[in-house]
Amino acid sequence: MRLSRTCALLAGVSTLLALPAALAAERVQVVTSFSILADMIENVGGEHVEVTALVGPDSDAHVYSPRPADARALAEADLVVFNGLQFEGWIERLIDASDFTGPLVVATDGIESRLAAAENAGHDDHDDHDDHDDHDDHDDHDDHDDHDDHDDGHDHGDIDPHTWQDLGMGELYVANILAGLIEADPDNSAAYQARAERYREEVAAVDSEVRELLGEIPAGTSVITGHDSFGHFARAYGLTFLSPQGLSTEAEPSAANMARLIDVIREENVQALFHENMTSPAMIDQLAEEAGLPIAGTLYADALASEGEASSWLGMMRHNARTLHDALAEPGHDEGGDAHDHEH
After folding, report:
1. Radius of gyration of the chain from Cα atoms?
2. Contact 3, 73 (CB under 8 A)
3. Domain that holds residue 265
4. Which among 290, 247, 245, 248 has a CA at the least distance from the CA of 270?
5. Which stretches of sequence are listed as region Disordered (predicted)?
6. Which of 225, 209, 218, 203 is nearest to 300 (CA)?
7. What mean pLDDT is predicted for residues 54-73?
8. Which helix (DSSP H) or strand (DSSP E) does residue 296 occupy?
9. What is the tally of structural domains in the chain?
10. What is the DSSP letter of 109?
């Protein structure tokens, strides 16, 4: 009798231990290109998805080199999601190499037409930032023109692919992810739809918070970051972003570009510079030293943080807005800069 009870207990323990593996096997296996998309998918998919990001937190998707294990991960996936707009120059070759045949989601589907409509309408969606048209003209001349020799080799096309930097584009990201999850797992479509609706509400709320914070920064303020990844953020929230590198981090900026940017820093009365979490700080440190300006904090552009507030997309956007506000809002430029200096 005692032996049979022991066997039954052991069988029960084995069943309990097997449950997590069984539950994981029942989840939709989603492979995505980088950490920001992974967070979006987890928010829409919840407990029904198991998400793998090929490029993890604090890592640079621009310079990523896929491994054989990545092709195997795609081959075993139920759903593959990537940003598109040629952000991941390596992803389509990897998909072809993997022989993946399941649903494929380009998270930015529909964004090109949304951007074209905004351009044709004179950016009516951002009436609160009427001064921004001047910023765009300045960016196109001083920043993008300086980087023509970089952009041609990076296959980003004519559109800045960093569209997640505008929370107003979140609706399209969520809609595309939702459609992909429902295609891969129609049995849980109601759960996905409910989570997507809640997530849309959270995105809209954070968008309002970001606009309120950045609305306290003086019009015409220029911001210096490592590479040209904040164009959509600038258009949405009314700032000017300049950088020594172009849309990609692959190529080092020329000495001439660095010299021109130092001139612009002085002409534009730039108050502070910012590191990016997934790029080398060396260029920004050099600019700060030569221009005599503080490093006012770290911004998150193409990757989430490994931990802390910026380890989610919405947390990242809050962090960026607060960091910019603390450094640049009036009064207190100096206090904002000093408050962040100790972190670096």
Report:
1. 22
2. no
3. 217-327
4. 290
5. 119-162
6. 225
7. 94
8. strand 295-299
9. 2
10. T
Q: How confident is the model at residue 295 (pLDDT cuts 50, 70, 90)?
A: very high
What tokens were used for 204? Answer: 């809209």
pLDDT of residue 67: 95
Residue 299 and residue 246 in one domain: yes
At residue 205 the predicted structure's pLDDT band, cuts being 50, 70 and 90, is very high
The residue type of 306 is S
Residues 6+ apart with CB under 8 A from 204: 167
Whether pTM > 0.70 for this model: the answer is yes
- In this structure, which amino acid lies at residue 58? D
CATH code for position 309: 3.40.50.1980
Q: What is the pLDDT of residues 173-192, one digit of tens each?
A: 999 999 999 999 999 999 99
The predicted-structure confidence for 310-337, as pLDDT tens digits, reads as follows: 999 999 999 999 999 999 997 644 443 4
Q: Which two tokens stand for residue 243?
A: 């950088």
| CA angle (249 as vertex; 145, 52 as ends), nearest 5 | 135
Two structure tokens written together for 118: 């905004």
Residue 276 is predicted with a pLDDT of 87
End-to-end CA distance of the chain: 66
Helix (H) or strand (E) run with residue 274 in it? strand 273-276
CA separation for the pair 28, 31 (Å, rounded): 10
Q: What angle do CA 157, 276, 297 make, to 5 degrees?
A: 145
Question: Are residues 272 and 294 in contact, defined by beta-carbon separation less than 8 angstroms?
Answer: yes
Please indicate, yes or no, whether residues 240 and 92 belong to a single structural domain of this protein: no
Which of 226, 279, 308 has the alpha carbon at shortest distance from 58? 279
User: pLDDT digits over 27-37, tens only?
Assistant: 999 999 999 99
Q: Is the peptide bond before 294 cis (omega within 30 degrees of 0)?
A: no
Whether residue 34 is found in the same domain as residue 178: yes
Residues 316 and 167 in one domain: no
